Amino acid sequence: MVPAWPSAARQNWIDMTMTYVRTNIQAMEGYTPGEQPQGGKFIKLNTNENPYPCSPKVKAAIGRVCQSGLQRYPDPTATAFRMQLSEMLSDELPVITPDWILCGNGSDDILTIITRVFVDAGDLIRYPNPSYVLYKSLAEIQGARVDVVNFQPDWSLPNEFSTPQDRLKLAFLANPNSPSGTIVPSAAVAEIAAALPCPLVVDEAYVDFSETNCLSLVAENEKILVTRTLSKSYALAGLRFGYVVAQPLVIRELAKVKDSYNCDALSIAGATAAIEDQTWRTENCATILATRKRLVNELRGMGFECVDSQANFVWCKHPRHESAELYRDLKSVGVLVRYMNYPNWGDGIRVTVGTDDQIEAFLTILNPMLQ
């Protein structure tokens, strides 16, 4: 048994250790993921996961890799996936080849790579508010400053978002946006990118639940990068696989920064099998969209103000009930939703679209709380 340190010695060690840590790291709070309970029974509607199991083809592909062995390093560039994806996306982006694609350990890994490539300490990163809170953490890790531009009441972006500014090196746009589920039309995105003096990352994590996307813009402007993930519409959040589509010159620079083997053999095989099964994806998305429509109608019937969503979640607020209180009350009876409070904007509740049974149970539990 290791004896406990005297409190004074422990504090001295902590004080000394902290002198080694970069000042900006000490100052930051760090990104806080949504709750992932490891025990107990919950209706989990808080982290925008797909509520259904992935395509059976994914499990079969992973099984084949396990059977053949994991003793060798994986393909460092996920060639099989990039080849399959470029073929799949060729109708939307005819010029695409595997050289237009870089893969990562989820799209968060891709966002980290992009930030490291384009942004120096002291540079400026721009993103809208409210939006994906990871963007702030990426800036803080890099020692960069942030320029946060509020959405307008109709969830469009003001001209300020595309205005050049000294040392502005990168702009993020979640599209569809989280937490609102709203989308900026591709024509508006093209105008923003043309006006910006820096690359624009269009974060399309939820795009398969949307009516439109910005993929075609990548061929029109070398400053546009489109990132996507397999966590949502392919139900592979536990596998961690994402990618970016950009012009080959950009991809070559990003590849210099990625970890040597940032995607393992299981995730490459599973992701490749997933995008091969477009029948599964199409049917799954249709199911989620139907449930989303019902969820919005029911919430509005209960008096909630709901934003029209093009994602697999709904952002809502009740005019007579505090969002934080509803979140706590729901959690106390085993229902997890995401409470979010954004500076200079306000708070609300984000509800992931679950299965029909999960949504039915959620609504049944919620209704008496509003009486």
Blueprint (SSEs and pairs):
Blueprint: H1 7-18, H2 23-27, E1 43-44, H3 56-68, H4 79-89, E2 101-104, H5 107-118, E3 124-129, H6 134-142, E4 145-150, E5 168-174, H7 186-195, E6 200-203, H8 217-220, E7 224-229, E8 242-245, H9 248-255, H10 265-276, H11 278-301, E9 305-306, E10 313-317, H12 323-332, E11 335-336, E12 338-342, E13 346-352, H13 356-369
Parallel strand pairs: 1-11, 3-4, 3-5, 5-6, 6-7
Antiparallel strand pairs: 2-8, 7-8, 9-10, 10-13, 12-13
Please describe what this structure looks like.
This protein has 371 residues and is of the alpha/beta class. Helices cover 39% and strands 16% of the residues. The strands form 3 sheets. Strands 2-8-7-6-5-3-4 form a 7-stranded mixed sheet. A 4-stranded antiparallel sheet has the order 9-10-13-12, with helices on one face. β5, α7 and β6 form a beta-alpha-beta unit. The radius of gyration is 22 Å and the shape is globular. The termini are far apart. The mean pLDDT is 95. It holds the Pfam family Aminotran_1_2. GO terms for molecular function: histidinol-phosphate transaminase activity; pyridoxal phosphate binding. InterPro entries: Aminotrans_II_pyridoxalP_BS, Aminotransferase_I/II_large, HisP_aminotrans, HistidinolP_aminotransfase, PyrdxlP-dep_Trfase, PyrdxlP-dep_Trfase_major, PyrdxlP-dep_Trfase_small.
